[in-house]
Design a protein that fits this description.
By secondary structure, this protein is an alpha+beta fold. The protein has helices spanning 12-17, 85-93, 130-156, 162-167, 172-184, 190-204, 238-257, 265-274, 279-291, and strands at residues 7-9, 20-23, 31-34, 40-41, 43-50, 54-55, 64-71, 74-81, 98-110, 116-127, 263-264, 295-299, 302-305. β2 (20-23) and β3 form a beta hairpin. α3 crosses α5, α3 runs antiparallel to α6 and α7 (238-257) packs across α8. It is globular. Mean pLDDT is 83; it is low at 209-231.
Length: 306
């Protein structure tokens, strides 16, 4: 029996900086997003000011909504589709920005230009009082600083074992994530990120503080932020529409004969590869269909129409 992935307490700035993915192990491996600051995330918890949502689904029959959650370090897109009806209802319910807590799965979408955009596919959205939002932000900052301290310690003690860390109350998942972050982001400027957290600390204390624009951006981590309102996607070519149709046809065929009504991701990819849709082309179509809310992955490795 697989256990539910823990929700990492994360700032928007750390999510924006997380541009490395990796697959887990096992029969149905989860996908993780690795940050430069010792987080290996499948699910996350974020807190901040949530904007009113906008509909971004191409098909009116398949609802898909997006809002933006901003904390003192940055902002991140929050989405929900018809498979997350409660989260989608919460996104749609507000006509003005309000403090909120969001729990959901991280998603990295790479556009046709190769630029990565991180978003959170909401599982739960809760509007809260400002005091509660600040309390949750305090917990996020505390855990973030603890992970940064762990990374600094690994510089001095690269041989730190999981057993030794466990005896000190350091989660094994944190140690493994810190080790992987050091390997995948060898030149990251952690002191600059610590300085950026100053705005979050001031927010927790109830101070206004300087705007985040006055704080230095780490020169060694290049991050492209999605604009608050992305322009409509360019019209697909006939060939791209045909590829999407092929992908969806194969998904439907696999789902129709499965016992649980879901399409196994590996089988779908195997089938489309037999039709010449392989590698990055297949992954790009999968990402585009997920981003557009056409298909969902409610169970790791299992697909269905949204």
């Amino acid at each position: 029996m697989s256990l539910r992935e823990p929700a990492w307490r994360i700032t928007a700035r750390e999510l924006e900086s997380a541009l490395e993915e990796e697959k887990g192990e096992g029969e149905r491996p989860a996908t993780y997003l690795l940050s430069p600051f010792a987080a290996r995330m499948n699910r996350v918890l974020v807190a901040g000011n949530l904007s009113p949502a906008e509909s971004i689904g191409r098909d009116e029959a398949q609802a898909f909504w997006r809002a933006r959650l901003s904390d003192p370090t940055g902002s991140v897109a929050v989405t929900a589709g018809s498979f997350q009806p409660r989260a989608m209802a919460q996104l749609r319910s507000a006509s003005a920005p309000r403090p909120a807590i969001v729990v959901g799965k991280v998603h990295l979408f790479r556009g046709r230009d190769g630029v990565g955009y991180v978003s959170v596919r909401a599982e739960g959205v809760r509007a809260v009082a400002e005091a509660e939002e600040r309390a949750v932000l305090a917990d996020i900052v505390r855990q973030t600083l603890d992970r940064l301290d762990l990374m600094d310690r690994l510089e001095k003690e690269p041989g730190l074992t999981e057993e030794a860390a466990r005896l000190e109350g350091i989660p094994a998942a944190w140690l493994r994530a810190a080790q992987k972050s050091r390997d995948r982001y060898p030149n990251v400027d952690r002191p600059a990120f610590r300085r950026e957290l100053g705005n979050a600390v001031r927010r927790v204390a109830g101070e206004s503080g300087p705007s985040r624009a006055t704080l230095p951006t780490p020169p060694t981590v290049t991050v492209t932020r999605a604009p608050p309102s992305r322009p409509p996607a360019p019209a697909l070519s006939a060939a791209e529409r045909a590829e999407e149709s092929l992908f969806l046809d194969q998904l439907d065929e696999v789902a129709d004969v499965s016992a649980d009504g879901y399409a196994d991701l590996k089988e779908v990819l195997s089938r489309v590869s037999a039709h010449g849709l392989v590698g990055e082309r297949a992954e790009a179509i999968l990402n585009r269909l997920e981003e557009d809310g056409v298909i969902e992955e409610p169970i790791v490795g299992k697909l269905r129409r949204a």
